[in-house]
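Review the following:
>
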Amino acid sequence: MTTPLLELRGVSKRFGGIHALEHIDLSLYAGETIGLMGDNGAGKSTMVRIIAGNFQPSAGQLLIDGKDVSFTHSTDARDQGIEVVYQDLALCDNLTAADNVFLGREIKRGIWPFQWLDYGTMAKRAGELFAELKSETRPRDEVRQMSGGQRQAVAIARTRLSESRIVLMDEPTAAISVRQVAEVLELIRRLKDQGITVVLISHRMPDVFTVADRLVVLRRGTKVADKKIVDSSPEEATGLITGAIETA
């Protein structure tokens, strides 16, 4: 049997008297796309932050390639190939696409203290990443001039610098046009084609059922569904989210 790329075993998280997550078991395999759904307060963000190293679980285990791991900081998760694209994207509008891709990881030339930023190399590498994603985003264009889909391409390209194996995407299609939604879904397919595992956190039912291989639903901190997308339906997912359907 194939070893999961990432596994959560009995993961719980408490904030004082609040139980944000309760005994979550979840396995992620290489090259699959998971649609993670749930109402506000269901525990989605908490679970993502635990995987990303921003929170430590109150109980339970995380395993990478079958080995127990413990993240005390987001850099620990990044070292294991886990990257996050947050809803606000954390981009600087006054910088170019290439500048944003390399923000905090700039390529420099020379010997300290006589060093300077190698803008040419960064632009070239950013262009290669956009080409891999089949995005029309251009490295030297300022982010402030870009569409929502292009901004997502910049944020996703940034995750590829570290040879990511898992990309967590928080509501990537919120507040963008129909055409831009199609662009973002295509970017997710490109990641999958490269063997990268994607966790798509979304309230948009059509997006999840378009690109996901598996549906995972959280409700009030517990997992109520974990099944292949072909074995579910938008109607069932809605019932699971609202509680009209207890579990699946």
